[in-house]
Amino acid sequence: MIHQYTLNGCNIVLDVHSGSIHVMDAPTYEAVRLLDGGKTPGEAGAELLQKFADSGITAAQVQESLDEIEDLRRAGKLFSEETYADRAMDLKKRNTVIKALCLLVAHTCNLNCSYCFAAQGNFRGQHGLMSFETGKRALDFLVEHSGMRRNLEVDFFGGEPLMNFAVCRDLVAYARSIEKEKKKNFRFTLTTNGVGITDEVIEWANRECYNVVLSLDGRKEVHDRFRKDLAGHGSYDRIVPKFQEFVRRRGEKGYYMRGTFTHFNTDFTKDIFHMADDLGFTELSMEPVVADPDSPSALTPEDLPVLFDQYEILAKDMLRREREGKPITFYHYMLDLSHGPCIYKRISGCGSGTEYLAVTASGDLYPCHQFVNDPEYRMGDIWKGIVRTDLRDEFKLCNVYSRPACADCWAKLYCAGGCTANAYHASGDIHGTYETGCEIFKKRIECALMMKVAQALEQQAGFAAES
Amino acid sequence: MKHIVTLDTRDMAKSAVNGGCGECQTSCQSACKTSCGVANQPCENKEAE
Questions:
Q1: H-only helix segments in A233-364
Q2: When comparing pLDDT for A118 and A439, which is higher?
């Protein structure tokens, strides 16, 4: 399977199953299209001579194109075959270990964001804070079920985790006290709305947290539309200086400014550029809202062309910034083509319900934070362990090959089948798909690949100019 | 090649042989929390091809 598209003047061909990425001149790109459509090389060559006659193409040039295509095919880099489906089915038999927990340390929040998928922090249940003893047991549970896995991830999440900061701090101290003996390396992350940031939090997080995710939606009017405090006041003015101080003192350690865009700000690049140009942040993430389709903030099919334009604007602008020596990072455009994920990662799905679990403040286990308080998806608790092994087994096989809609999708090895929770909420089935999310994902990957192609071509041109 | 530039990408077939250590980050645990992608997850195994 291949996927070919032209973006920013680049004729790009992705060979799906080998992961190879090619950029071609126009006749060669057209030849690939013809061959993929079932033409023989002879038929394709004849059509190319006709189609590109005005540009003076010669039979020898056409043959060169066809020969290069054939070389790539023989090398397994073009029109490569699908050979991974059997491995995906074997994943059900594998012994999984747990390597990541999302700790919902606070089922409460000091903001009242109406678009919150966690229902303003309480996950449609009781408000509550995780006790140290529960959190400690969760960490022990993780260690006990992590097998030989060394790197363990724990995200302090909520609600707003800083409403239970003392427990976060004490849990990290506990983890550090056992990780050497247990031969583990805990990587903590913190996702916060910023209201509770203090000097102590900054000092702690910058020492202990591998990554911090700071929630900011962009322009003041956009941010304050949803991210209000309990009295109804926007939080922008209160949190931005704290975030700036946090990031300034963070040095080289990882962080993301993480925004949400909705139907009300489909021009979300303005929010990204505001965070970059006006506020000085460089590590940026902007996510489509997760909302009931009936919600006024929900994205609509009519929004998609607008969003696609926005993603292109962002990609082109990021290339410009890079050329000018002032790059920014956009989470969804980060691709490591030469040392990115192996095929097992690409076909095994997001890991929810198997490698990754959410732990509520009272110690219940769910497949991920987006399933919390759905009684059908309560898997067990941190004391008794997973009792719904049927659910675990179902999630274990929930991957790109278990979703019928993914079979013919060119992007399947980039998303691994997508977000199970989004699929469930959109289709009622964890093996379904969330079509709007898929369209957005595919556009982002097209833009990210285009950036890689553009960077490679610029580098090549640079080498040519130097030699 | 004169007509095609091929980017340097990880060979998926080879990664089926030497991949799968599982030390990489969980997909959802980084910045998004509401969508899944694996392509931007770096491989933790520096030796693997």
A1: 236-250, 269-273, 304-323, 343-347
A2: A439
